[in-house]
Amino acid sequence: VHSSNLASLDAKLIPEHLLYLCIDYRRKFLSSSKSASRYNFYKDSNAHEIEQMLKVLAPLRQQIFSLLNEWEEQTDLQKFLDVIDMLLTLPSDIPLAKFLLHKAQVMQENNSKFSFSNQLKSVFDLMSSWQKMELGSWPTLLDEVMDQYENNAKK
């Protein structure tokens, strides 16, 4: 009886443990890492944005999977599912630039064939915010290139 009470207590505390881990991770790795002004869209990971992507893609994947069960012969649905599965299996520590352009193009090409407008709007909004983030990081990237040229000139 005692061990079942402990198991029940552990199960009830799982959300609190997950919240603590998320807060601790952000405190240790995100706030102490490069500041937003030093963010390199092409080289630095962004776990928060990857988390946002997962929240957007999971319901879309479920809807596509359901439709694919009804219409197994639809290769466009399978292409969508393949792209989403590939994105969901990528590690969270790779740069956003690796996710962005090609996948957006594939999804836009297939957008008109099926009614995923609500879910795809979320995907396109997320990608648009990433493109803005990319453009916002360019001044820092240019500063880094200038620093590299200055350092190389001193050699």
UniProtKB/TrEMBL annotation:
This is Midasin. GO terms for molecular function: ATP binding. One of its GO terms (cellular component) is nucleus. Keywords: ATP-binding, Nucleotide-binding. The keyword Repeat does not apply. Transmembrane segments: none annotated. GO terms for biological process: ribosomal large subunit assembly; ribosomal large subunit export from nucleus.
